[in-house]
């Protein structure tokens, strides 16, 4: 190092950087900063799961969950709670820092992953590139052509996205459920598409031959996956940690953020796995990256604004939230192609595509229901183009943040999904089941897996994700994307984080 450059280093020490949350946005940010030689603290409220048990026995399966399943609950709370009206699917579990969290609001509960790797630990791995025309519709403020030519391919490569193995989908007994639904799609005149995934299909093939421990084929989804899924701890986070520049602070929740000169003080609450508070400390950082997910980031910022901690935040903070049009529905199948098998892979591989960017668009992914019984049931996670938005507001009476999403706001999603299900039933026979969801509902309008928005790019932040009115705080997660994408969101969230980090680093915002 020359005398001039070592002098420059002494005069301007490297900034202290905090990343709040270690999901897709946080992992991309950690890697890109670490590759620039910058040290970061990666603050994660959940566990560093890989350190909790030997590989292969970290997580519990969906059909036999234990304390590792839920983030501080006493009972599991699965989306499909019933079968034939009987609630035998959910289990009592010890109160523990498990991997699947639920944020409950008045009329919406949001499922999310908790731990190093965020949602990548629990999700179904479906890694879908959105339609460019739809992204242009929902985020005209960004350069969509550049986003698709540069950052979407980067995300797909770095996440390890692959098409489902055609032999498995065509022949495996574990994919009978998807073939049955696809045949019924065809009879009703609908197109079936394959759904890319980050699961290792070669590993899954070996699972089906009983050559390796079963994972996707042993219902390891939603409460974590022990083998074949390329979660962030096997991709972005692995590369970030290998630099030696990233300090992970697990079981540490950021509870407050407020300025101190041009820096920010974070309040860090450290807990043990039973939820007991071990310490509460305040640490000052020069730069803060908010990657706590759409709900986590929105809640923190809405509260900070309301309490006067970050008074400069603008009126867009907390706005344009949506559940990505998520509506789940199950059909009892009839006639030919009605067997969905006694064994099912936990990893989806196909979907019904009826999307033209209009508000009647539906992309209905054929989801497994691996309960070990022949249920003759096709489950769909329908993604829809719902025109409504929810908004987060601070409730001074309860001290909590509320979300204004209602069943009425969800109704356009249910209506769009119903048109498709009615057509499937008319062509094939069968009916929509009402004995699987809470309250005997046919279509879910009260939970989601894909929270999006609350801190929208170019509105609450500038066009690179830096918060308006709080320089040095950068938003890097699903809260940047307003309400919907038409496909599962993690590829787009990853690409958005890649884009923003690229532009912020080039602009010297971490110098
Ligand atoms: C069951 C399920 C299935 C899904 N399936 C798919 C799928 O197949 N394909 C797809 O694309 N998407 C899927 N998703 C959604 C996907 O996982 C999310 O969209 C994605 O993880 C969001 O990324 P993110 O970076 O915004 O935040 P997250 O991945 O949610 O990461 C946020 C992190 O921040 C941490 N955190 C939150 N608050 C704080 C705080 N105050 N202090 C410290 N840490 C904090 C959280 O513990 C978490 O680790 C699924 C989600 C669920 C729940």
Structural class: alpha/beta
* Sheet having the most strands: 6 strands, antiparallel
Q: Strand order within the widest sheet?
A: 5-12-13-14-11-17
Return the string of H and E elements: HEHEEEHHHHEHHEEEEEHEEEEEEHEEEH
Our measurement of the CA-to-CA distance between the termini, rounded to an integer number of angstroms, reads: 18 Å
Q: What is the assigned CATH homologous superfamily?
A: FAD/NAD(P)-binding domain
Helix content: 25-40%
CATH third-tier fold name: FAD/NAD(P)-binding domain
Radius of gyration: 22 Å
Labels describing this entry:
binds flavin-adenine dinucleotide, 19 strands, alpha/beta, 511 residues
Architecture blueprint of SSEs:
Layout lengths: L2 H9 L5 E4 L3 H12 L4 E4 L56 E5 L4 E5 L18 H7 L5 H16 L6 H6 L4 H12 L3 E4 L6 H8 L27 H7 L3 E4 L2 E9 L2 E9 L5 E9 L1 E4 L2 H14 L20 E6 L17 E5 L7 E6 L9 E8 L7 E4 L4 E4 L3 H22 L2 E2 L14 E2 L24 E3 L14 H17 L5
Parallel strand pairs: 1-2, 1-10, 2-6, 4-18, 10-19
Antiparallel strand pairs: 3-4, 5-12, 7-8, 8-9, 11-14, 11-17, 12-13, 13-14, 15-16
The protein binds flavin-adenine dinucleotide.
The site of flavin-adenine dinucleotide has 39 residues, from helix 2, strand 4, strand 7, helix 9 and helix 11.
Task: Explain what the structure shows.
The protein is of the alpha/beta class and 511 residues long. It has one domain (3-506): FAD/NAD(P)-binding domain, CATH 3.50.50.60. The protein contains 11 helices and 19 strands. Strands 5-12-13-14-11-17 form a 6-stranded antiparallel beta sheet, covered by helices on one side. A 5-stranded parallel beta sheet has the order 6-2-1-10-19. α2 packs parallel to α8 (236-242) and α4 (144-159) crosses α11 (490-506). The model is unreliable at 4-10 (pLDDT under 50). Residues 20-25, 43-46, 111-115, 118-119, 122-126, 222, 253-254, 291-294, 296, 300, 449-450, 477-478, 488-490, 493 line the site of flavin-adenine dinucleotide.
């Amino acid at each position: 190092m020359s005398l001039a450059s070592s002098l420059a280093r002494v005069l301007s020490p490297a900034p202290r950087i905090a990343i709040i949350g270690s999901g897709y946005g946080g992992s991309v940010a950690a890697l890109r900063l670490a590759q620039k030689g910058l040290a970061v603290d990666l603050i994660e409220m959940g566990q560093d799961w890989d350190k909790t048990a030997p590989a292969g026995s970290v997580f519990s399966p969906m059909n036999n969950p234990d304390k590792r399943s839920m983030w501080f609950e006493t009972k599991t709370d699965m989306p499909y709670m019933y079968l034939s009206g009987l609630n035998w699917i959910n289990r009592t579990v010890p109160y523990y820092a498990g991997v699947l969290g639920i944020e409950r609001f008045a009329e919406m509960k949001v499922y999310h992953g908790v731990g190093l790797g965020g949602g990548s630990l629990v999700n179904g791995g479906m890694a879908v590139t959105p339609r460019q025309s739809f992204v242009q519709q929902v985020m005209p403020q960004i350069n969509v052509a550049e986003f698709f030519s540069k950052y979407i391919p980067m995300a797909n490569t770095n996440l390890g996205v692959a098409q489902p193995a055609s032999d498995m989908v065509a022949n495996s007994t574990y994919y009978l459920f998807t073939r049955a639904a696809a045949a019924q799609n065809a009879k009703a005149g609908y197109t079936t598409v394959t759904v890319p995934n980050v699961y290792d299909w070669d590993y899954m093939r070996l699972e089906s031959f009983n050559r390796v421990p079963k994972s996707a084929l042993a219902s390891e989804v939603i409460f974590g996956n022990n083998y074949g899924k390329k979660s962030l701890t096997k991709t972005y986070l692995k590369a970030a940690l290998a630099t030696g520049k990233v300090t992970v602070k697990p079981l540490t929740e950021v509870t407050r953020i407020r300025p101190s000169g041009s820096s920010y003080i974070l309040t860090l609450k450290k807990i043990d796995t039973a939820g007991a508070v071990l310490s509460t400390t305040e640490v000052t950082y020069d730069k803060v990256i908010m990657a706590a997910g759409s709900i986590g980031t929105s809640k923190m910022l809405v509260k900070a604004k309301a309490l006067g901690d970050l008074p400069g935040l603008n009126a867009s903070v907390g706005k344009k939230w949506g559940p990505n049009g998520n509506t789940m529905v199950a059909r009892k199948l009839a006639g030919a192609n009605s067997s969905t098998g006694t064994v099912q892979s936990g990893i989806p591989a196909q979907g019904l595509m009826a999307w033209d960017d209009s508000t009647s668009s539906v992309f209905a992914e054929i989801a497994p229901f691996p309960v070990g019984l022949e249920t003759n049931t096709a489950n769909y996670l329908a993604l829809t183009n719902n025109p409504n938005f929810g908004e987060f507001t601070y409730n001074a009476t309860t001290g909590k943040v509320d979300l204004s999403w209602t069943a009425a706001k969800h109704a356009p999603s249910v209506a769009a999904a119903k048109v498709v299900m009615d057509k499937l039933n008319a062509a094939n026979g069968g009916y929509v089941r009402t004995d699987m969801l809470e309250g005997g509902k046919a279509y879910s309008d009260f939970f989601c897996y894909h929270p999006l928005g609350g801190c929208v790019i170019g509105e609450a932040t500038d066009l690179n994700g830096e918060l308006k009115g709080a320089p040095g705080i950068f938003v890097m997660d699903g809260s940047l994307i307003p309400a919907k994408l038409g496909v599962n969101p993690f590829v787009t969230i990853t690409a958005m984080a890649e884009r923003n980090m690229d532009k912020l680093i080039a602009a010297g915002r971490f110098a």
